[in-house]
Specification:
seven-stranded mixed sheet; TIM Barrel; 247 residues; alpha/beta; 11 strands; 8 helices
């Protein structure tokens, strides 16, 4: 059994609201400096920079899982985390059918840069990625699970895109793997404040949009094998000696 320090909510320059410093080699360097063993790349409705971060982390010992922060039609954010780039690509193809045909207003929202593993510019994604998709959160979670991923509503207590604030309750048909809280709230406080979270595993992540924030908030997973969707799910369920905690 080994402990893995994880930050499962990190943005790159593909997210319009992220700082220009959020480049693959710098993200990897900062994550290692902060003592992280595992990160997930979760840009807004987009996965195009995941491969670059995974390549930047090659041979460093840092595990990078491909992911996305999906904004559902309820205007609730949900982390969608996978094992492989193939799964992430399939998820992106599905999400693209749910996005409205809008162009990004880079002057107003910020640019969305696709880069390589060294951080060099490749192209700019002109599709509006920060707008809500047309899919509901319960349906989206089922679709994530159908592809073998983890579905985790993000920063559920926040007054912007947080599930508990926006909806006021945990939907009875939402089959998510965990809930995420921000650095503003301890998991025990969240469960005391929101009774419907009492039976839900609660993690915490940084939601890093700039380098210094990476690893500021983290979750420690006790795993009997290398990090993957399967081992993280087992830890969230506290099975066979595996588990997790928020330090």
């Amino acid at each position: 059994m080994r402990e893995y320090h994880a930050d499962l909510h990190i943005h790159t320059v593909l997210s319009a609201c992220a700082e220009v410093e959020m480049l693959p080699p710098l993200i990897v360097e900062e994550a290692l400096y902060k003592g992280l063993h595992l990160i997930a790349i979760t840009d807004h409705n987009a996965t195009a920079n995941v491969a670059a971060v995974m390549e930047a982390a090659r041979d460093t010992g840092l595990v990078v899982l491909p992911g996305m922060e999906l904004l559902t039609h309820e205007e609730v954010d949900m982390l969608c985390i996978f094992d492989t780039l193939e799964q992430a690509a399939a998820w992106q193809a599905q999400v693209d059918t749910w996005l409205l045909p809008l162009d990004n207003d880079a002057e107003h929202f910020g640019p969305q840069f696709i880069v390589d593993a060294t951080g060099e510019f490749i192209t700019e994604d002109i599709r509006m990625r920060k707008a809500p998709a047309t899919v509901g959160i319960a349906e989206a979670a089922r679709a994530v699970h159908a592809l073998g991923g983890l579905a985790i509503p993000a920063h559920v207590e926040r007054d912007v895109y947080g599930l508990m604030y926006v909806l006021g309750f945990w939907p009875p048909d939402l089959e998510a793997d965990a809930a995420e809280v921000s650095h503003n709230l301890r998991p025990s406080q969240a469960q005391a404040q929101y009774p419907s979270l009492r039976d839900i595993p609660i993690i915490s992540s940084s939601d890093a949009h700039f380098l210094d924030w990476i690893g500021h908030t983290r979750t420690v997973f006790r795993l009997e094998d290398t990090p993957s969707v399967a081992t993280l799910r087992a830890a969230l369920r506290q099975g066979a000696g595996q588990g997790f905690y928020v330090p």
